Amino acid sequence: MSKVITRFPPSPTGYLHIGSVRTALFNYLFAAHNNGEMVFRFEDTDIERSKVEFEKDIIAGMEWLGLSLDAANVVRQSERTDLYKKHLDILIGKGVAYEAEESEATPGAKVIRFKNPNRKVTFTDLVRGEVTFDTTELGDFVVARSHDLPLYHLAVVIDDHDMNVTHVIRGEDHISNTQRQILLLEALGFERPAYAHIPLILAPDRTKMSKRHGAVSINEYRAQGFIPEAILNYLALLGWNPGGEQELFTLEELVKEFTLERVHKAGAIFDIEKLKWFNHEHLKKLSMLEYESKLKEFMERHGEKAPDYLIDIVPELRNRAQTLGEAAEALRVGEFSFMEKDITVDPLLLVQGAKTDAETIKKNLTVVKEMISALPEGKLTAEGAKEIIFPYATEVGRAGVLWPLRVALSGKEKSPDPFVLLGLLGKEVSIARIAEASQLL
Known about the structure:
Blueprint: E1 5-8, H1 18-33, E2 37-42, H2 52-65, E3 75-76, H3 81-94, E4 97-101, E5 110-114, E6 120-125, E7 129-134, E8 142-146, E9 149-150, H4 152-162, E10 167-171, H5 177-187, E11 194-198, E12 201-202, H6 218-224, H7 228-236, H8 251-257, E13 268-269, H9 272-284, H10 288-301, H11 310-320, H12 324-332, H13 347-352, H14 358-373, H15 382-396, H16 398-410, H17 418-425, H18 427-439
Parallel strand pairs: 1-2, 2-3, 10-11, 12-13
Antiparallel strand pairs: 4-5, 5-8, 6-7, 8-9
Helix pairs in contact: 1-8, 4-5, 7-9, 10-11, 10-12, 14-16, 14-18, 15-16, 15-17, 16-17, 17-18
């Protein structure tokens, strides 16, 4: 068997779409699983709609995801006109392509049409099995606007041959294109690649994914704080079944497990909440330093600076925030401002949710302060604090202990629970803040 070569050929007429990424991923996984490679090219024959900004977006998205791409050697169809003209001349020389009127509506305008042999075309789809088309209904279809303007079907057939592509893995919406392309490659004497048409990604209402269903550009997801590992993991499972209970995969594990035999035929439903779950799970697998680094880089890209105490609150952020965007927002709105050196405590807030009087609150805070003071240095953790304080709070009334304790430590009406606060602030700061709050009562 020749070396497996797949291809990812996006059209730079829009931003890198989540569906295009899934197609690129399946091509990448299949090639890597078989020790092959995935080639990349821009199909920019649509001159009017193709834009450099879309090219840059696609390249940036692919590089961020970590899928193979040599940005310095990107192939563009617009730069391969001579190759297309050469093969177009071959088709005309064989008498299977000819210049003709574009249509009755545009008299005088000439195009080049392929002379359809009007026969049935059958191919074995590696996902869907045997597929047959009767090409008669296509008529003599246009393959070029002129010698210098080849259309998609001709260019893609020539490119796949020139790049030695062995497997064409693409969305099922391309399945009807296969009949034209097989006719063209046979007329040119090219070897037929294997075809695999994968299911489309559908919105929850089973319609095609669109802007109204949320972000569809991969770089929009990046801007929201999703990470590549989670996106690739989730997209791999949209239309492919690994055959076991495992859900969380690294890219290397996906390469090892991926086969086309386990690709579904039915459309795959995109669920943003499930993507968030995958993202959260992958974030929780990061070390504290890895998480801190990713969050700092994310905030810097958005023109924000991470606080000096970030590393201290990583465990809490990593546990709570499903995306880096959510973590950054928590910092932005001051949810962790209690980590600053100085806080202000409102005496009225100390009493507000305690369901008891100031004298009782003061007594409770004194008891808690003594409990914390008795702990050895370095032993004040959220779990340890709860173990010694919660039984007392349960005995005398939780609201009268836990509410004022939380306010004393944070100065806020809303914050993490008091045990988490104690673990984050440490023994010395916690004792000082409890003492200061007690003096306000």
